[in-house]
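hey m, so remember when u said the tokens were messed up on ur end? i reran from scratch. heres the input so u can diff it against urs
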Amino acid sequence: MRIILSIIILTSYMAASSLNLAISSNPSRINPILATDSASGEISSWIFNALVKYDKNGKVVPELAKSYKFLNDTTLVFKLRHDVKWSDGKPFTANDVIYTYKTIISPKVFTPYSDDFKDVKSVKKIDKFTVEVIYKHPYFKAVEIWMMGLLPSHLWKNVKNVMTSVLNRRPIGTGAYTLKDFQVSKNIILHANKNYFLHTPYISRLVYNFMPDSSTQFLMLKSHKLDVGYLTPLQYEKQIDKSFKKFYNIYESISHGYTYMGFNLKDKRFKDIRVREALSLATNRQELVDILFFGHARVCTGPFMPGTFAYNKSVKVPKVNLKKARKLLKEAGYDKNHPLKFTLTTNSNNSIRVYTAEILQYQFAKIGVKMRIRTMEWQAFLNTVVAPRKFDAILLGWGLGLMPDAYSIWDGNSDKKGGFNFVHYHNKEVDKLIKKAERTINKPKLSKLYKRIFKLIAQDKPYLFLYIPNSITVVNKNIKNVSASIIGVMHNENDWIKP
């Protein structure tokens, strides 16, 4: 009798409940192999699954795979689940894995994720539910690269142009939720997938309210119209009251990402290491943390996250030295009569980045640098500035996974169309170390190589590494089964229950 009552209760939750969230920018393509912006990635994550994933403790576990094992150092075999269906009812099989892999590595498809698969020798279908992957050599991310969301081959195999296909706006996946369509600058509504192989989510709809203005999002949170949201440190410290804390649980942890100012290293001004060094010496990173985050952040010293095997504790925060900064600028040919001038571009919908730019402008002015700030709408910023590399300097952030990988951002071969090395960073020693690390499966040796890469990049200063903010997430207290984890509170949203 209790079981029957539980089923009735859960069914009533499913029939009525909606989870209200916010999104600040438009997804560009809802396709896991093309999703390079945060909005596309977030929506895609509900719709698509991968062969493996991280569990709440950061351990790699099967997802669409039932199991996996290494036959030797270069051969990996996945056994697939038999009970998975695409949201249109078609079965998931090895054909979908093969198609997705071939699409990722296709020269007609521009995706930075192809770099992850460059060390794959072959991917072979053994039978309907078995896939064999052979690597060219031992590869440190042999399992992790299969966290890429998979595409349905029965729909995509006849598509001529993956980049422009209508399926990028009408995705069919195996995930917990489905999306029929979306319109630019409109709310995005996802519906529970009744074919989901674990169980139909207890929350029947996800409603992403389109709000490009962060202050509007905060007002929605304060009026209890969002179930999940994020607070800035200022909001957390100064702008919420007892009623807010009574309605929301608050979860705070170090974020998996950092903010940086990146230089266009093809620009003659920034090719000169003395200029980059001078700007670094003028940057008071702790002041940024204190002003912007009220202590809810830490200074960033390099490209890999604290707590990972790649983090190098020996690299210290650069000390502010305005006298030395002016001296370096003078040596590089800049003075009061001929000051260094450049434009820093960032996205307008991120107020923290805009404030960061303003503080940097003030700090640089102390050494005679005249920096202009240009802010743009997110998609325009990506499409007309970042992708074509048309900038002096940019202010951006990287979200990073639990397994650091230097190749996509720091290897010289990633300085290409669709690649993430859009500042044109080249260091032959770094390239050699990255290649060596890719073939190193011994963790202590891998750690040593990555710490060396960390130090070299920090010395070269292709970026000014600025800060790592804390993530402050709030969740409606009425929602059941919410828990914190190393990968965030949304790790088990499929099991959330909202009365």
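this time it looks ok to me. The first strand starts at residue 18 and ends at 23. if urs says something different then somethings off w ur setup not the seq
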